[in-house]
């Protein structure tokens, strides 16, 4: 019996995979990789090398405009599988600043995918049209953020921007993360100090 088959059998026993699933190359590779000491994260990165595109979904929100603000983003592979998501309270900002900061944070997190194509999805018509050069940027507070994003864009093979409906499942998920962060932050601010 080869070491790959032994590793596959050990992996199947530990994780309960069916024998038919192990016939798939990816599961055989995963089983042999885990058996040889390669972590599942390393296996995921190796399988991601075959892909050359990530989907970045961003959202930013502000209550009061300007007021308490939060950003959130999700990074997905080209098939729509979630790779990473993050949300953060950023203090006081306008809604548009939060939208752009969300994209900047997402692109910073995408450093491991530099050289790949990035498809950016958001529910903000303003962000999409300004980044594509269709609309002028008049707000002076947004110009440094747009410059930062333009500099970061150069590290990727290409970047496209899409406006998605708020009914889109990825947009709804990221929007929920933003609102959870805002709720946590505003709840903390309302609590009386003892």
What does this structure look like?
It is a single chain. The protein is α/β, with parallel strands linked by helices and 194 residues long. The protein folds into 2 domains: 46 residues, no CATH class; 138 residues, Ribonuclease H-like superfamily/Ribonuclease H (Nucleotidyltransferase, domain 5, 2-Layer Sandwich). The chain has 8 helices and 5 strands. It has a 5-stranded mixed beta sheet with strand order 3-2-1-4-5, with helices on both faces. Strand 2 and strand 3 form a beta hairpin. Helix 1 packs across helix 3 and helix 5 runs parallel beside helix 7. The protein is globular.
Nearest-integer average pLDDT: 82
- Multimer state: single chain
Dominant shape: globular
Individual helix count:
8
Distance linking N and C termini: 68 Å
**Structural class per helix/strand content?**
alpha/beta
The CATH architecture assignment of the largest domain turns out to be 2-Layer Sandwich
Q: Taking Cα atoms only, what radius of gyration do you get, to the nearest Å?
A: 21 Å
Quickly count the domains.
Answer: 2
What are the key terms here?
five-stranded mixed sheet; single chain; 194 residues; 2 domains; 47% helix; Nucleotidyltransferase, domain 5; alpha/beta; disordered N terminus; 8 helices; 5 strands
Kindly summarize this structure in a few lines.
The protein has 194 residues and is of the alpha/beta class. The chain is built from eight helices and five strands.
How are the secondary structure elements laid out?
Blueprint: H1 3-15, H2 19-22, H3 25-35, H4 40-48, E1 53-62, E2 67-77, E3 82-93, H5 95-109, E4 117-122, H6 125-131, H7 143-153, E5 158-163, H8 169-190
Parallel strand pairs: 1-4, 4-5
Antiparallel strand pairs: 1-2, 2-3
């Amino acid at each position: 019996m080869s070491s790959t088959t032994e590793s596959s059998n050990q992996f199947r026993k530990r994780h309960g995979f069916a024998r038919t699933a192990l016939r798939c190359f990816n599961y055989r590779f995963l089983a042999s990789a885990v058996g040889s000491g390669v972590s599942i994260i390393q296996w995921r990165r190796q399988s991601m090398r075959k892909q050359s595109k990530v989907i970045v979904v961003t959202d930013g929100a502000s209550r009061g405009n300007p007021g308490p603000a939060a950003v959130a983003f999700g990074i997905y592979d080209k098939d729509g599988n979630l790779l990473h998501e993050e949300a953060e309270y950023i203090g006081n900002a306008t809604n548009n600043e939060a939208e752009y900061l969300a994209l900047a944070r997402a692109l910073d997190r995408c450093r491991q995918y530099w050289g790949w194509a990035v498809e950016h999805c958001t529910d903000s018509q303003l962000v999409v049209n300004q980044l594509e050069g269709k609309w002028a940027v008049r707000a002076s507070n947004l110009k440094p953020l747009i410059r930062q994003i333009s500099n970061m864009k150069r590290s990727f093979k290409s970047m496209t921007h899409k406006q998605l409906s708020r009914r889109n499942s990825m947009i709804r998920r990221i929007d929920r993360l933003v609102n959870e962060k805002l709720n946590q932050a505003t709840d903390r601010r309302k609590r009386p100090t003892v």
